[in-house]
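STRUCTURE:
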């Protein structure tokens, strides 16, 4: 039996982490079958190495969420506990092992707690909005989930969409000679698909309209049933475009929206549809918002160092 004291930043943080009448700590205690006690501005843990390791991960994830929002709900705490305690079931998809999630044969397993929460959110909600920096696997996991649903026969179509900020809206698009026409804006989605399926199969699906890769403008006036519809780079939509896109959802469909609010390429003073939607749809049932952070970056470790080197720039920019 080991003991560990986790120091918190303040008594206030300790109260938020503990929950009303220590409700959150009780949830951790019951789930892990160990001792979890709040003492002033510390949390005391008693248990086996494995129990303590899980409890630390749960508490770290709770603290991370608290930094983003001012409080936690019981539902959010239970999700964090479930994800870390049980691990999220894998997504069935044929993948290559050097990609942003571990692959074991034909299965894909999230590699971080944040990614695991994202996969769980996509499974359980009709609309999932995932915000996070480059390299967190936002788009890649969304495409993997869509391919898995298609293989299981749960949907009939995958639609991959990106807002083209510059000239992309006018480019001729797929099929045709697919490879020659792949719009550079749509290339990342194409690459993700080719990671999960044999390129010949991707080509067949594109020709048969089972998979569609299109610029955002092409979505207007359509309703998509039994589909997974993924919007990538959603920070570059306007509020009107975002509304138009979200209302394309038909019966038996899921929408996944991914983006990075620090990388907006819209004209100055244009509000990003992604920033807007995060506040507008915050408390609606069946809509999940997942924030991935630096801890979820699963590219070459050097990417993290490069991003950190650019960090001060961000602060300077925002003052202009």
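SEQUENCE:
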């Amino acid at each position: 039996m080991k003991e560990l004291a986790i120091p918190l930043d303040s008594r206030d943080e300790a109260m938020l982490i503990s929950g009303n009448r220590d409700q959150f700590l009780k949830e951790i205690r019951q789930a892990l079958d160990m001792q979890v006690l709040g003492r002033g501005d510390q949390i005391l843990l008693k248990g086996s190495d494995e129990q303590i390791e899980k409890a630390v991960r749960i508490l770290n994830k709770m603290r991370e969420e608290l930094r983003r929002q001012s409080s936690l709900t019981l539902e959010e705490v239970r999700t964090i506990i479930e994800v870390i305690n049980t691990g999220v079931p894998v997504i069935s998809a044929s993948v290559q092992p050097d990609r942003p999630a571990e692959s074991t044969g034909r299965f894909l397993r999230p590699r971080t707690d944040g990614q695991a929460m994202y996969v769980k959110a996509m499974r359980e909600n009709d609309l999932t909005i995932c915000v996070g920096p480059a390299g967190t696997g936002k788009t890649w996991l969304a495409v993997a989930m869509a391919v898995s649903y298609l293989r299981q026969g749960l949907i009939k179509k995958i639609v991959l969409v990106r807002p083209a900020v510059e000239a992309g809206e006018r480019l001729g698009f797929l099929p045709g000679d697919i490879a020659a026409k792949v719009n550079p804006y749509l290339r990342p989605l194409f690459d993700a698909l080719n990671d999960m399926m044999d390129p010949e199969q991707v080509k067949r699906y594109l020709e048969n309209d089972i998979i569609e890769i299109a610029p955002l403008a092409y979505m207007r006036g359509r309703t998509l049933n039994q589909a997974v519809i993924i919007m990538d780079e959603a920070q570059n939509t306007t509020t009107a475009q975002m509304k138009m896109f979200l209302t394309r959802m038909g019966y038996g469909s899921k929408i996944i929206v991914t983006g990075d609010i620090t990388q907006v390429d819209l004209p100055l003073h244009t509000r990003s549809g992604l920033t807007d939607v995060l506040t507008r749809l915050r408390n609606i049932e069946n809509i999940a918002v997942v924030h991935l952070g630096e801890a979820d970056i699963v590219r070459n470790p050097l990417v993290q160092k490069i991003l950190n080197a650019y960090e001060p720039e961000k602060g300077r920019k925002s003052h202009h």
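REMARK: Confidence is low (pLDDT under 50) at residues 94-98, 102-106, 167-172, 316-320.
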